[in-house]
Design a protein that fits this description.
Chain A is an alpha/beta fold and 337 residues long. Chain A is built from 11 helices and 9 strands. In chain A, the strands form 2 sheets. In chain A, strands 7-6-5-8-9 form a 5-stranded parallel sheet. Chain A has a 4-stranded parallel sheet with strand order 2-1-3-4. In chain A, helix 1 crosses helix 11, helix 5 packs across helix 6 and helix 5 crosses helix 11. Helix content of chain B is 31%, strand content 23%. Chain B is globular and about 65 Å long. Classes of the chains: A alpha/beta (337), B alpha/beta (425). Chains A and B meet through helix 4 of A and helix 6 of B.
Chain lengths: 337, 425
Amino acid sequence: MPARNTALPRLAGRHLLGIEPLAPEDIELILATAQKYQTRTPRAVRPVPRLDLLRGKTLVLAFFEASTRTRVSFEMAAQRLGMDVVNLALEASSVQKGESLLDTVKTLVAMRPDALVIRHRSSGVPHFLARHTDVPILNAGDGTHEHPTQALLDALTMRDHKGGLKGLRVAILGDILHSRVARSNIHLLSKFGARIALAGPPPLVPKDFERLAPSVTVHAGLEDALREADVVMILRVQLERLREPLFASPAEYARHYCLTPARLALAKPDAIVMHPGPFLRGIDIAGEVADSERSVIPDQVENGVAVRMALLELLAPPTAGLAPPAPESGKAGKKKK
Amino acid sequence: MKPLLIKNGRVVDPASGLDDRRDLLVEDGQIAALDKKIEKPEAEVFDATDLVIAPGFIDLHTHLREPGNEGAETIASGARAAAAGGFTAVCAMPNTQPVNDSVLVTHYILGRAALAQGARVHPIGAVTKNSQGEELAELESMRAAGIVAVSDDGQPVWNSRVLRRALEYCAALGLLLIDHCEDRQLAAGGVMHEGPWSVRLGLHGIPALAEELPVARNVRLAALTGARVHIAHLSIGSGLEVVRRAKEQGLAVTCEVTPHHFTLTDEACRDYDPRFKMNPPLRSPDDVAALIAGLADGTVDAIATDHAPHSDTKKQTDFESAPFGVVGLETALAVALEKLYHPGKISLPRLVELLSANPARIVGVPGGKLSVGAPADITIFSLEKKWTYRAAEGWSKSHNSPFDGWSFRGGPVATIVGGNIVFRS
């Protein structure tokens, strides 16, 4: 392993594969680092930072699945730190020519990026790739498993508005089963002592979620989960991930699971409303709720850039002095025996 | 050929109830004598002191990839790997390319098997054409050509009407039907066992019920038709319970369990390593405990490998994209010793029964016993030798083993087929 400047604070692991393996101290470090890059808090609006911290470093964005917000957010984060960004829309390239996933990524690694952001429709792809490369991998969403940067930006947003996470009652509503956002948030919130109430259409909220982490409860109805909530997080219906029709129609879904003002009234009067986007107006969230004062959705988007800047700083840290390119440590690209 | 005298081994033969020190003489491919002390000066001597001598192991469930996917395994390489695992015979599943659903393919397999040096290969024919589950394959002709059972393994015989017709033939032909039990609607899209781990990993689950329901259906169809039905790779406690009740009712239902299913749980999928992806999937700890209880109490009839070779290229991808299946011929005995015999879950005669006597009886092939005049198919193994399994150094052409790197106590020492030593460690 190449020596690193130990004076810099750093994460325990080389990659960001998910929230579950992170220690609370790692999460604290990421959030504290993100705070210095924040452009909007409930108390202040700050100018957009333009820094040279990671000048000369290259970030490769490998999105095997379509994405706009997460990809743009990573791009902006990298650019604000002075990084070069290589953006690959892999859905339309070598993957379709039949190249194996491993070969594609070996090619990317040969371009010597300083970090690799991966999004893929299959759960566990970043974990598979992390076994074959030493280049830091940032998981930008893997299948229905984890979306760690989303949970981190959500945590930053909740802390800004609620002061802390301990004891917070967070309702997560909608398609939990197919949601990587839900899994990452559940792990993060649970590590910090929040209480998480889940609700949604019955087949989309399996009881086994209660065994995912401490302080998770699965509720039969939306109303039950919303009661006394400090934070209401709505998830998008992942129509593209449904393998079978799990509800009659979007209209039927909206009747029972859309966050309307009447349903939101069951939460605490000062409860905030969050949504990872893109939201389906009138289906998962009512327009008047999304546009209301209670909605912190714009804060989430801005915090997304700050959190991703923090992660780039921590995982692709500025090299002290004239560091030679990291040598192939023998492990890279070699198959696991 | 010189006679072979195996001296001073612990002979374990469940068929005769023998478990004692004996000498065993092999002549002209047959067991010529079995006695406390045999002298035969002209014979080649195999010193089996501290070793177990058992009737040759027979694997009821092997995938050789020939014809069609010789890069992953050939009949020759599979027969070698089997011999290295202590197997003197394997039953080859028909899901090759083309599928063994015709006399032509059966003849091809038998022709290649005759050239192989290692375990005997007994072909299994498909139940339906191309194993599609719709039209019956050439059951009677394939039987005459030498298949020992029929199965659409890899796929269930999902159409109950077709299965009923097939079983009516099987009953008349005395042919065994082996079913891969999977309700394809309940299992659709699944890549691992449905439970807390699938929820955690965000992987689509295969519920236990998807296996239990067809087991129950098959038991009732066995009762209706009088045919013998064998449940392949049983992986769940609830399915085993169905088999237990069927046996109590005197139905001709048997079942097998694989070493990976009685050893590993769904937690093994936690790092998304495709070496732990197979169908049926690794199940819950409760299921593993139930399978071990069934292996001990006699409900489970056989240990079978479900040896399913896949090339590194195919398996070196992410968990969801990787094909189902693991190799198992070379580790089955060692895993069984490790998880069943050494911890005292089953006796040595019971182990031999599960690997030899019962499989021979189920498919009705010679072997499974060490009586004078029987073919000299013999497995010699150690209960103590320490070794580490390295898949890349194994005999199979594929390396997709969940036990790669495991250290074992006990394992195969020599494998004798028709009087020839085809493997010696």
